[in-house]
C-alpha cells in the first residue's frame, strides 16, 4: 500500500453537517481499500479564488494508506460528491520528509545542548556572586 495525502475542500454551508460529509468521504476512502492514518481539520477559510461560486471552504487534510487502483476509484467518487467543492490527492516524497524530520531533530538537540550550557553558565555566575 502507498501513502497519500488528500486535501478536501468542503462546501462552506456544511459547517453544521460537516461530520456527515466527513463520514461520507471517510467511507469513500475505506470502501476503496484505504486506511486513514491522520485527519486534520483546518476549519473554514477564505479561498484564494472563487471555486464553484464559493468564496470560502472548510479545509480537511487526510493522510491515507491506499493501493494505487483505490486512488482512481476515490477520485471518481469525489468528483460527483456534492459536499466536496475541490480535492487534491498527492503522494508525498517520504525521503524528503524523513530528511526534514532528521534536520529538525538535530536542530532541537543542538538547541537543547546550548540551553544546558547556558543554564550551567548561569549557575556558575550565581556561585561567583555568593
- Proportion of strand residues: 35-45%
CATH architecture classification of the largest domain: 2-Layer Sandwich
Q: Treating each run of at least 4 consecutive H or I residues as one helix, how many helices?
A: 3
The average pLDDT score comes to 85
Indicate the CATH topology of the largest domain: Alpha-Beta Plaits
Taking all Cα atoms into account, the compactness measure Rg is: 22 Å
Task: Walk me through what this model shows.
This protein has 130 residues and is an alpha+beta fold. A hairpin with a 2-residue loop joins strand 2 and strand 3. Helix content is 48%, strand content 35%. The chain has two domains: 2-92, Alpha-Beta Plaits (2-Layer Sandwich), CATH 3.30.70; 93-130. The chain is globular and about 55 Å long. The mean pLDDT is 85. Strands 2-3-1-4 form a four-stranded antiparallel beta sheet, covered by helices on one side.
List the SSEs and their pairings.
Layout: E1 2-10, H1 18-31, E2 35-51, E3 54-66, H2 68-79, E4 84-90, H3 94-129
Antiparallel strand pairs: 1-3, 1-4, 2-3
What's this entry about, in short?
The protein is an alpha+beta fold. It has helices at residues 18-31, 68-79, 94-129, and strands at 2-10, 35-51, 54-66, 84-90. The radius of gyration is 22 Å and the shape is globular.
Identify the notable features of this structure and list them briefly.
alpha+beta, 48% helix, 4 strands, Alpha-Beta Plaits, 130 residues
Amino acid at each position: 500500500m502507498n501513502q497519500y495525502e488528500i486535501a478536501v475542500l468542503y462546501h462552506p454551508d456544511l459547517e453544521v453537517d460537516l461530520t456527515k460529509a466527513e463520514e461520507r468521504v471517510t467511507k469513500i476512502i475505506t470502501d476503496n481499500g484505504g486506511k486513514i492514518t491522520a485527519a486534520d481539520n483546518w476549519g473554514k477559510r477564505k479561498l484564494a479564488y472563487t471555486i464553484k461560486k464559493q468564496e470560502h471552504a472548510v479545509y480537511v487534510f487526510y493522510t491515507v494508506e491506499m493501493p494505487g487502483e483505490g486512488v482512481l476509484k476515490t477520485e471518481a467518487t469525489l468528483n460527483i460528491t456534492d459536499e466536496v467543492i475541490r480535492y487534491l490527492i498527492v503522494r508525498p516524497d517520504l525521503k524528503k520528509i524523513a530528511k526534514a524530520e532528521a534536520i529538525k531533530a538535530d536542530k532541537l538537540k543542538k538547541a537543547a545542548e546550548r540551553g544546558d550550557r547556558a543554564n550551567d553558565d548561569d549557575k556558575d555566575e550565581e556561585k561567583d556572586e555568593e
